[in-house]
Amino acid sequence: MPTYKAPIRDNLFLLNDVFRIDQHADIPGYSEMTPDIIEATLAEAAKLSEQVLTPLNRIGDEEGCHRHDDGSVTTPKGFKEAFKMFTEGGWMGMSAPAEFGGQELPAVLSGIVSEFLASSNLAFMMFSVLTQGASSALLDHASTEQKKLYLPNMVSGKWTGTMNLTEAHSGTDLGILRTKAKPQSDGSYKISGTKIFISAGEHDMSENIIHLVLARIEGAPAGVHGISLFVVPKFIPNADGSLSGNNNVSCGSIEHKMGIHGNCTCVMNFDDATGWLVGEANHGLNAMFTMMNHARLSVGILGVGLSEVAYQNAAAYAKDRLQGRSLSGVKFPDKIADPIIVHPDVRRSLMSIRAVTEAGRALVVWTGLRHDIALRSQDAKAREAAEDHMGLITPIIKAFNSDFGFENAVMAQQVYGGHGYIADNGMEQFVRDARISQIYEGANGIQALDLASRKLSMNGGRAVKALFSEVDVYLKTQPDQDGMAVYIKPVREALSRLQQATIWIAKHSAENHDEIGAASYDYLRLFGLTAYGYMWCRMVEAARRARPAANGDMAQFLDAKLTTARFFVQRILPETAALLTRIEAGAASMMELPVEAF
Ligand SMILES: Cc1cc2nc3c(=O)[nH]c(=O)nc-3n(C[C@H](O)[C@H](O)[C@H](O)COP(=O)(O)OP(=O)(O)OC[C@H]3O[C@@H](n4cnc5c(N)ncnc54)[C@H](O)[C@@H]3O)c2cc1C
Q: Which of 126, 128, 160, 172 to mutate to test the pocket of ligand 1 (most atoms within 8 A of CB)?
């Protein structure tokens, strides 16, 4: 059975030493976030993750969810009780506004808690992510009455939320969705249609389920400009929050799937169900984007969480498993063989996982800080810059972190050899669970296209220019000597390749639109690797600053940061050269074969 220890120290290092949250007291809420509060919050979240959710992960995988003849769905043994603990602990509303019962803690902190949840039990975490995402969409787009009716119970976790976009024929292309909304004389709508793949669509953990549904109002224009967002509760609430009758919403079936068995993926039928418009008619996709962006960041975080737990178990196994002797001479003569951690190839896997996990975590924390600025800052210019950053970096965090999440889970499984393939050891569950993150919330190929086609050119390229300039200025201000050059030089080269690729795409996609699609996946990876390189420079700078005063465990921790950074820039970052070569090869060989040749 896998074990898990929440990486509190790594996160504190990022908050306190790398991103210096003490220097951000101007962000409302930050001055109250004292070191004591941060540590106590993370310690409580760690306890819940390690002691309650980790032991349930395997049970959730083995038992899965069950749909009964009456359409009800039960979650695996222990999930309901754990959810009660989770909501009573106030975790659901951790970052929600106090006005609706939330704790209003900064997003940067809830991002870290999400990492712990993802490491310990991804299927469980998804119940809260969907609810928090639905709440944020209501917060941004719902009427005052709707907020008053739904948010207090969603923030407390008494009611959960869902996101209903996908239909059997309409996944990536939401413009062709068919679910209908018929206006009623009382201002409500009758919603009819079938949605598929709805996470947490029906279950037994909350008193009510609030579905956010995309549908087309009768007579609305075709395409994405004719889609509206509706709130469709499972049980219709009265004004005082008590529940009246059953709405015509039912779960037709649940999917049998590769992983995340503890989370029910439902076919949801809306048969003249009563719903209410959220925001403006025909602007539903825009409103739903609030929820999707929240979910996309969470998916990026779960890539880090799964990498971390897979790494911890693989590292422990590598120190324990005895096979063969070290190439450079026997290391443990008193044992029948050396532990496999002495073998360079096993080290390659472990170092690769930790180098990208730590950089991915830094990217999440850095972006969490910007998220708080975007949400809370009084300074309009700072808010605009932070929103630009969020828009640009969201597809990178979603796709790049989740690609690494899966690659890391596979590498960690490989460290176990054949034992990694055996269910009892839990590593194959990480592989199966990680895989979905590359697909849902917009498949990673679509994230890459979003980055290369939409995000680069937004506001005349303001976001990308600001980011390139920030990294460029940072690298220029770092000393070339004193051992810093070994980190700075490769990141400078990666940045220059990324800039070259950006110019290449802009030039060639104007001549042939397929060029952008052909380049986008490699471009997102090149962008992600460069961003990770920047994160490593920031971590190196902080580690070097703290090192002289450190001793014992802390000194070892900081030294490990420097070594891991060196591994990243020397053995992972060079991939950026190959990516640039691939991008500049263009679309021709990809697009040349006629369809019949496939
Ligand atoms: C376990 C699970 C949980 C889910 N949870 C939810 C949920 O809670 N709510 C919800 O609404 N949906 C949910 N989904 C649906 C998920 O978001 C979609 O499966 C996903 O967006 C892809 O849509 P699709 O499956 O129809 O694939 P398609 O859209 O058919 O895409 C197939 C492939 O073609 C590529 N592709 C498609 N169009 C383009 C294009 N224009 N350019 C380049 N490549 C393209 C895609 O990248 C993909 O690789 C879930 C799915 C699963 C499996």
A: 172
Q: Are 364 and 528 in contact (CB under 8 A)?
A: no
Among 441, 511, 515, 596, the one annotated catalytic: 441
CA-closest residue to ligand 1 atom 50: 197
Which residue's C-alpha comes closest to atom 48 of ligand 1? Answer: 443
Q: Ramachandran region of residue 206, left (φ > 0), alpha (ψ -120 to 50) or beta?
A: beta
Q: Which pLDDT score, from 0 to 100, does residue 108 have?
A: 95
Largest Cα span, the chain: 84
- Any atom of ligand 1 within 6 Å of the Cβ of 172: yes
Nearest to 562 by CA among 547, 581, 580: 547
163 Cβ inside 6 Å of ligand 1: yes
Query: What pLDDT score does 246 carry?
Result: 87
Q: Is 265 in the pocket of ligand 1 (CB under 6 A)?
A: yes
Distances (CA, A) of 204 to 88, 255, 364, 445: 17, 17, 32, 34
d(Cα 9, Cα 425) in Å, to the nearest integer? 27
**Lookup: tokens for 548:** 């002289």
User: Residue 400 phi/psi, 5° resolution?
Assistant: -70, -45
- Per DSSP, what are the bridge partners of residue 251? 268
Catalytic residue flag (residue 44)? no
Amino acid letter for position 486: V
d(CA 558, CA 258): 39
Strand-pairing partners, residue 322, are 339
Cα gap 160→155, rounded to integer Å: 9
- Beta-ladder partners of 235: 246
d(CA 220, CA 165): 17
Which residues in the chain show pLDDT less than 50?
none
Q: SS3 for 118?
A: helix
Outline where DSSP puts E strands in 204-354. 208-217, 228-233, 235-237, 243-246, 249-254, 265-278
Q: What is the pTM of this model?
A: 0.96
Distance between CA atoms of residues 501 and 464, nearest Å: 13
The whole-angstrom separation of Cα 132 and Cα 155 is: 7
Separation of CA 263 and ligand 1 centre (Å):
18
DSSP 8-class letter at 225: G
d(CA 127, CA 102): 17
Question: Tell me, what's the pLDDT at 244?
Answer: 86
Say if ligand 1 is within 6 A of residue 123 CB: no
- Could you give the 3-state DSSP secondary structure of residue 183? strand
Residues counted in the chain: 598
Q: How confident is the model over 422-478, as pLDDT tens digits?
A: 999 999 999 999 999 999 999 999 999 999 999 999 999 999 999 999 999 999 998
